[in-house]
Amino acid sequence: MIQPLIRRAGSADAEALAKIGADTFADTFGHLYPKGDLARFLAQTYSRDRAQAELADPGNASWVVETGGETVGFALAGRCALPHPQVTPECGELKRLYFCKPWQSAGLGGALFGEVLAWLQADGPRDVWIGVWSKNFGAQRFYARQGFEKVGEYGFTVGNTVDREFIFRRSADSFSTFHPKLA
User: Fold this and answer.
1) How many Å apart are CA 8 and CA 84, to the nearest integer?
2) pTM of this prediction?
3) Which end of the chain is less crowded, N or C, counting CB atoms within 10 A of the terminal residue's CB?
């Protein structure tokens, strides 16, 4: 088996990021939405142009996980855009961390998550936020092991469906004292 590689994404990765984003979202959450709503959401949220814009934004960073020339996972981080009254312009957010089904629970999530947190903390400690679907219990447990706490909720809209999302936060001061459990 080829050892997976985690690396920062560049503009040449826009197509792969758009594809894996759409594929993993549809595989994981597609059953929740009417087909037309899902198709419109995927076309808007995971287009090549949007991936290119996210890669070009200096306030964002993306990573890809590759094995054998295939992209099997990715992450996106940047300025926090979650609707919570304590979010400030200095706050960071893990916006996406997705893996193709065969690579979910393969032990790579912790390594990719560590890369994202290191980037988010590179200029000094800051609060980090994450939005998590209310029924994604595995992700909620993982983030809790990393020192994140549920601090709010909001509605995540896909077409006419509004999902209940939880807002998790890890405070800036915890980054110098907390040692995560990546397992």
Assistant:
1) 29
2) 0.89
3) N
